[in-house]
């Protein structure tokens, strides 16, 4: 098994189900770890390392929905797949609205589970990429001077250089200089690219 293989965590109070899922995932190349309760999972050093977490909907003490809420608070990029032996429609709706990739009823097919896990891993990767992009863009934003940030905010509103100059009480030539520096520091090769960056950074800009 490759050390680069995605990590899957299974949280289920039924050890026979949890261990069976772990074996299935390992058989197709994933790294999988089983946890018998939400409390034990949250205190584990491995918590937060998973590309996907498979949660039982109904568990004693801490339910799957409660665990989902806590995990998303700590790790907003985490992807979750729910399992339920007798879940209700409202529970399923709440789970999906909170960002769950899928909610499957037991018994489920191996193919269905693996398909949902694959979707969850893809979602996790996308979320991680977005977070990394946001961090990089925020670092670029910090490199702007206060004046450059003012110009940035007005440029992405679609205002022409002449109007920006009038609002900031600077010359149009100075606006062009600041605008060029903004484009360079933010690594934007066009106005649409700069607008996209501003949308990602909102409401920071």
Helix content: 55-70%
- Low-confidence residue ranges: none
What is the residue-averaged pLDDT?
93
Instruction: Indicate the CATH class of the largest domain.
Output: Alpha Beta
What is Rg? 23 Å
Percent strand equals 5-15%
Order of helices and strands: EHEHEHEHEHHHHH
Q: What is the fold named in CATH at topology level of the largest domain?
A: Rossmann fold
Q: Helix tally? A: 9
User: By helix and strand content, what is the structural category?
Assistant: alpha/beta
Could you give the count of β-strands? 5
Number of domains: 2
Can you name the CATH architecture of the largest domain? 3-Layer(aba) Sandwich
Instruction: Give the N-terminus to C-terminus distance in angstroms.
Output: 45 Å
| Strand order across the largest sheet | 2-1-3-4-5
Which overall shape is indicated by the principal axes computed on the Cα atoms?
elongated
How is the main sheet built? 5 strands, parallel
Write the CATH homologous superfamily of the largest domain. Response regulator
